């Protein structure tokens, strides 16, 4: 078929891919860096390889939590990971001590940084480029999902419908823009399923199946779920192919690609999967298969994350969205209840069953946190094809309202739900503002006062508002607190003192990252019995939760000036 005719034949799929890629890039800019399950670990793995030119060794503490992962996805990310200077191939995030998983009440594991704004630079730029890799893998999965639909007997129109479900389903779209090895696994699982659905396998077929399996096993250990699937297909073909030679070539090609990794783990850790050290690093509430309570929590987590559960499973969509998409799922199930199960669909549904089995096994290993629908997504193309068939049978042409609804959600969710859960506590960099005072803690990075709006008068017994602008040069090793003193002009003694927490403690210093800028509106309650007169305004940083020591104030040329800065005067009336 000439290229122009092929384009005309598949133009709906090409248009769908264009819309998907546009929305995916939009989503990636609205999700703060690190705000997805294990994304910081996956990014650190790729950047660790780019910095050190070797794979991580769990015995040395390299890439905690993710160092046991097979390396293929991270190797394929290397052109992107190495597209910035070596010093920028780092993950710079500060933990939020009020995060839900840390015992707090906030959904953010980290926070927006001042430099998390276009045009992206340094480590922010490379992180966003790594997200492009996931988007590319997901886009190819949509194409292969369309091809799977055709091999399962769907019409071209219905296969496009199924591909649209893959492209715009909220949870799939969210995970497809995070730095992870999951999107590559989805692509390889889809490719393997497409190969297994080949109606007339030729001599090349065992090699292709084995190579795809090997690549999947070199991407993620959960790819072991594909081995029984291949076994089922070989059993179906036992009378039409030379079974044992095919099995031999298949095993040889998969082992040649992935076998060395599992031998390496066995030699290094005494465990082909490296799970011993992984479990030592990872803790989660346990899951008991014999507890009805645990099953209830598991199914709630699995069900909600199947539709839309963003962040680290910590940002929920509006309740109406769950009910609306659940109704569509119900309509689809009504339509597929009489779906004819031939050999092709036996393979397809077997993949769904194996994905559920792996998710159950992982939850038993890792605890309740293992009940996440993303572990089912290797079977997403099958689910999309089944839903497309079910909706066509139950509501006919009205089924096309669902893709339109999903696209509308995909446009609105990034701002109304996702980024709304992560308010900016920082402001954009303002390097043109001069340094008014500089604190250099003995064991941490400098802190700069870059602006202050000091009302010239204050009234005793009433609040006095002082607006400040700060810049953190780097991370801090303790939670500094800000003090504000009023003192008699020229006096060495302080007339009185009181402490003011930055933004009431919301943006404390343990969350500062390099080049963070933030505004702090200080509400200073002037005592009613303070004598009228002119006072110096002195501010500084002290270790309120440690030894109460103060950070030193230094001049630009390295001279210690004291432990506070005089930032102006105020007349108390």
UniProtKB/TrEMBL annotation:
Residue ranges constituting the ArnT-like N-terminal domain according to the UniProt record: 108-277
Protein name: ArnT-like N-terminal domain-containing protein
Pfam families reported in the protein's UniProt record: PMT
The UniProt record lists the keyword Cell membrane: yes
Domain of life according to the entry: Bacteria
GO cellular component, one term: plasma membrane
GO annotation terms (biological process): lipopolysaccharide biosynthetic process; protein O-linked glycosylation
Location within or outside the cell: Cell membrane
Broad class of the protein's primary localization: membrane
InterPro entries associated with the record: ArnT-like_N (IPR003342), LipidA_mod_glycosyltrf_83 (IPR050297)
Sorted UniProt keywords: Cell membrane, Glycosyltransferase, Membrane, Transferase, Transmembrane, Transmembrane helix
Membrane topology term: Multi-pass membrane protein
Record bears the keyword Glycosyltransferase: yes
GO molecular function, one term: mannosyltransferase activity
Spans traversing the lipid bilayer: 12-29, 132-152, 172-197, 203-231, 243-263, 320-336, 348-365, 371-391, 398-425
């Amino acid at each position: 078929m000439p290229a122009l005719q092929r384009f005309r034949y598949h133009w709906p799929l090409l248009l769908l891919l264009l819309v998907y890629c546009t929305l995916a890039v939009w989503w990636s800019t609205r999700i703060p860096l690190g705000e997805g399950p294990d994304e910081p670990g996956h990014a650190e793995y790729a950047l660790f390889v780019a910095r050190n030119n070797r794979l991580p060794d769990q015995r040395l503490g390299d890439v905690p939590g993710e160092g046991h992962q097979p390396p293929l996805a991270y190797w394929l990310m290397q052109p992107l990971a190495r597209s910035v200077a070596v010093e920028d191939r780092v993950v710079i995030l500060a933990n939020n001590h009020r995060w839900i998983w840390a015992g707090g009440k906030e959904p953010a594991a980290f926070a927006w940084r001042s430099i998390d704004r276009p045009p992206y630079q340094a480590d922010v730029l490379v992180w966003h480029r790594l997200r492009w890799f996931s988007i590319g893998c997901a886009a190819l999965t949509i194409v292969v999902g369309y091809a799977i639909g055709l091999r399962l007997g769907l019409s071209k129109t219905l296969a496009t419908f199924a591909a649209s479900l893959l492209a715009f389903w909220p949870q799939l779209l969210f995970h497809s823009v995070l730095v992870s090895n999951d999107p590559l696994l989805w692509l390889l699982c889809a490719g393997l399923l497409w190969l297994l659905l080949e109606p007339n396998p030729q001599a090349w077929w065992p090699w292709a199946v084995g190579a795809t399996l090997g690549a999947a096993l070199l991407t993620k250990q959960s790819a072991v779920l594909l081995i029984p699937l291949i076994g089922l297909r070989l059993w179906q073909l036992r009378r039409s192919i030379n079974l044992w030679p095919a099995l031999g070539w298949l095993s040889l090609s998969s082992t040649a690609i992935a076998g060395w990794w599992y031998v390496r783990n066995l030699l290094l850790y005494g465990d082909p999967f490296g799970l011993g050290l992984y479990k030592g690093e990872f803790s989660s509430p346990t899951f008991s298969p014999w507890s009805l309570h645990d099953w209830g929590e598991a199914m709630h987590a699995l069900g909600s994350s199947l539709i839309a559960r963003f962040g680290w499973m910590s940002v929920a969509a509006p309740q109406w969205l769950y009910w609306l998409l659940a109704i569509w799922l119900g309509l689809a199930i009504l339509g597929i209840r009489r779906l004819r199960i031939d050999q092709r669909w036996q393979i397809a549904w077997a993949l769904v069953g194996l994905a559920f089995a792996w998710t159950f096994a992982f939850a038993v290993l890792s605890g309740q946190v293992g009940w996440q629908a993303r572990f089912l997504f290797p079977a997403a193309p099958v689910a999309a094809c089944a839903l497309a068939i079910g909706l066509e049978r139950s509501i006919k042409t009205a089924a096309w309202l669902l893709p339109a609804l999903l696209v509308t959600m995909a446009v609105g969710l990034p701002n109304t739900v996702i980024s709304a859960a992560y308010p900016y506590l920082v402001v954009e960099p303002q390097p043109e503002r001069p340094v008014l005072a500089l604190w250099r803690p003995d064991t941490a990075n400098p802190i700069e006062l870059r602006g202050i709006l000091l009302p010239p008068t204050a009234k005793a017994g009433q609040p006095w508002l002082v607006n400040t602008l700060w810049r953190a040069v780097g991370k801090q090793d303790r939670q500094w607190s800000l003090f504000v003193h009023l003192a008699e002009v020229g006096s060495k003694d302080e007339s009185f003192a009181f402490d003011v927490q930055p933004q009431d403690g919301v943006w404390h210093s343990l969350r500062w990252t390099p080049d963070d800028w933030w505004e702090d509106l200080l509400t200073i309650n002037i005592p009613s019995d303070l004598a009228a007169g002119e006072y110096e305004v002195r501010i500084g940083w002290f270790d309120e939760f440690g030894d109460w020591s103060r950070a030193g104030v230094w001049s630009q040329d390295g001279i210690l000036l004291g432990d506070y800065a005089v930032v102006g005067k105020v007349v108390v009336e």
